[in-house]
Amino acid sequence: MNLLQLAHRLPWPPIDGGKKGTLGFVDGYRRHPEVSRHALLCMCPQEEATWAAEWKPQGTELHVDLMDARNSIPRVLANTVFSRKPFNMAKYERRSFEQRLHEALVRIRPDVVHFDSLHTTSYASLVRAQAPQALRVLRCHNAEHVILQRLADSETQPMKKALIGLQARRLHAYEAAALDAFDLILAITEADAARFRAMNPRVDARMIVVPAGADLPDELPPAPAEGGLIRLLHVAAMDWLPNQAGLRWLIIEVLPLLDAAGLNYHLDIVGKNMPEEFRSYTGARVTVHGFVQDLAPITSRAHVALVPLQVGGGMRVKILDYWAMGVPVVATPVGAEGLADGAEPAVSVAASPAGFAGAILNLAQSSDERACLRASAFRKVSESYGWPGIVDGLVARYRALLAARPEVAVE
After folding, report:
1. 118 touches 144 (CB < 8 A)
2. Is 312 a residue whose pLDDT tops 80?
3. What does 298-366 look like in DSSP terms, one character per residue?
4. ω into 406 cis (within 30 of 0)
5. Most buried in the list 147, 198, 226, 259, measured by CB within 10 Å?
């Protein structure tokens, strides 16, 4: 089958969960024996143009549309006043991308068009009109409106709260309507699937849960050396407000409790577009690295990874990566959403500052506890979250749906 994949971000380099999730499907599709032709058409912030020029994925036809993706206050206010569409969707409606898509549909004649995230759904009508034979598939990274609504609920400044709340309501309506344009909808967690059913009951028969995946080593990597110092790790894209809020909570609410308990620790904070607010926390017990291309030297020495997210949705791909790398994880309930189920614990979950600090202390003070969590997490990611198995199952579903369409001929 011929497969065209649309994305609102360049999935390279794989430095955050969104990029890794998209890249997992790029790699899976281009290597799959039943996919004879794979093309990726993606938007890309202008500041990532160098990465776009450097990335040459073998086996995939890559077409990149550079754009201004900034979330500036003037742009958000202009959208609020002059548009009824949510800003986070409207800014990805681009004539240049539409033209590139038109050309790709003619050139590739896809059997399947994979829309990567809600941000690409405005192009579904073009695909339906120009390639009616193609299966339209939407992969949802999150229930997008949930993130904005949680941000609005947590905001204390009245004007900002009202503005975010308005955008959340717009996004809820947009998301509910957009789901009707697709033949198959891929929810990333059961929790998100339930949210989609609640907002649009018509999606039930067209929706399946397809989690994100991880690149798996052949065996559990060795644990870092024991030396008295416990190395903690926080990795997140720091241009996303929920990640900023989570790190702020960790630094202000949790670290003082670790200090009071006398824990000998060092926290490494890694993330692109690091605000100056967080760079000022560098000190004897904290190192703020900013963007790091190769995380291996830092992750290989980490005893515990922290995911202190207070607002969010979907699945944290970084937790799958930590599991594959053998790093035990402490997360909030929001951070662990979709990954904390199962009879055998694979992540330590705590909601309050005291509970989160306690979970860190428990793992820091017991190498046996860390070893048990490392082993159970590696079993879980190996059994359920390997990219080849995820993509194999999905391509088989495409084949079955295409075969059920008598007017579609698949080579």
Report:
1. yes
2. no
3. HHTT-SEEEE--SS--S--HHHHHHHHHT--EEE-TTTTTTTS-SSS--SEE--SHHHHHHHHHHHHT-
4. no
5. 147
Q: Token pair for residue 214?
A: 């991880």
> Over the stretch 190-199, which tens digit does the pLDDT of each residue have?
999 999 999 9
Query: CA-CA distance, 207 to 140, in Å (whole number)?
Result: 11
Specify which residues 114 forms β-bridges with.
Answer: 5, 137
Evaluate if residue 253 carries a pLDDT over 70: yes
Which residue from 286, 4, 211 is spatially nearest to 124, judged by alpha carbons? 4
pTM value is 0.88
Q: Which of 213, 276, 285 is nearest to 25 (CA)?
A: 213
The 10s digit of each residue's pLDDT in 99-112 is 999 999 999 999 99
Contacts 24+ apart (CB under 8 A), 186-189: 186/137, 186/138, 186/139, 186/140, 186/210, 186/394, 187/140, 188/21, 188/139, 188/140, 188/141, 188/142, 188/212, 188/314, 188/315, 188/338, 189/314, 189/315, 189/337, 189/338
Domains in the chain with CATH codes: 2-213+386-403 (3.40.50.2000), 230-384 (3.40.50.2000)
Structure tokens at 277: 């607010």
Query: Per-residue confidence at 407, pLDDT binned at 50, 70, 90?
Result: low
Q: Which two tokens stand for residue 226?
A: 């024991």
Q: Quote the pLDDT of residue 315.
A: 87
